[in-house]
Structures are given as structure tokens and as C-alpha cells.
Design a protein that fits this description.
Largest sheet: 5 strands, mixed
Shape: globular
Strand order of the largest sheet: 1-2-3-4-5
Radius of gyration: 15 Å
Structural class: alpha+beta
CATH superfamily: Gcn5-related N-acetyltransferase (GNAT)
Number of domains: 1
Helix content: 25-40%
GO molecular function: acyltransferase activity, transferring groups other than amino-acyl groups
CATH class: Alpha Beta
CATH topology: Aminopeptidase
Pfam families: Acetyltransf_10
Number of helices: 4
Strand content: 15-25%
Protein name: N-acetyltransferase domain-containing protein
């Protein structure tokens, strides 16, 4: 199996949804909301993707200024392709696109904490999240 990595290669909403459904990230993303998923992939300004032929098997999806901060919104690898080094390679290739002072920042699911530590991330307890109350904004 030969995995090909691509920078900012076009990805359809269906490919993105399929990958997330095939990974553990699908449980925590609104994969039933196609418009939201299309917006997530089309408005990212840095994607690094992993392909097995024509099949999307991994993604690093980011929002960044390329100089100071890069928010890694999704790092997903299809379960069938996990433990092959694809996630670590996606992270390295993402960093290669960034300036030398740019930090890679993410919010990890509790089950993924040990993975991120294993590939070189350090834990920072200063993250805050403000959820929107959908009933107020409807």
C-alpha cells in the first residue's frame, strides 16, 4: 500500500464525511449536516491529506495565519489505516507548511490525549471553549 500526501488538494464534502465516519472523529462531528461539513472543508485554509489511490484515508484540516498560530481542527485517519504512521506524517507535513515560530494548536478528545503526547505535543490547560446556544440564535 502506497500512501500519497497532498497539500490543499480539493476534497469533496462526501469524501470528508466518509473519512470522518471511518475514523473515531465521526462521533464528535456533525457528519449528518452536509452543509456544515461542506463549510468546514471549503473554508479551511490549510489541508494536508493522505490518499490510498483515489480514497481519502487521512486529513489534517487547519485554520492558520502561517506565522504565529495554526489551529488543527481535525486530525483524522480511517480506522483501517491507523497505526501506520499516517497521523504523525500528516502532522509533520502540516508543520512543514508553517513558519518557524508558528505553534500547532488543537483540542483533543480525551481518548486521544496519549496519542498526541506520543507524537510530541505538550498539554496546555489554558484552552477555553464558548459553545453557541442554538436556541438563542435561531
Amino acid at each position: 500500500m502506497s500512501i500519497e500526501y497532498k497539500i490543499n488538494h480539493p476534497i469533496t464534502a462526501d469524501q470528508f464525511i466518509s473519512l470522518l465516519a471511518d475514523s473515531t472523529l465521526g462521533e464528535r462531528r456533525p457528519i449528518q449536516d452536509r452543509d456544515c461539513m461542506m463549510g468546514m472543508i471549503s473554508n479551511s485554509n490549510l489541508t494536508v491529506s493522505a490518499w490510498d489511490s483515489e480514497k481519502l484515508v487521512g486529513i489534517s484540516r487547519c485554520m492558520t495565519d502561517f506565522h504565529y498560530a495554526c489551529y488543527l481542527s481535525d486530525l483524522a485517519v480511517s480506522e483501517k489505516y491507523q497505526k501506520l504512521g499516517i497521523g504523525k506524517r500528516l502532522q509533520i507535513l502540516t508543520q512543514d507548511q508553517l513558519g518557524p515560530r508558528c505553534k500547532l494548536i488543537l483540542i483533543a478528545a480525551p481518548a486521544a490525549n496519549s496519542y498526541y503526547e506520543q507524537i510530541g505535543f505538550s498539554n496546555n490547560p489554558r484552552c477555553w471553549v464558548l459553545e453557541r446556544d442554538a436556541s438563542i440564535h435561531s
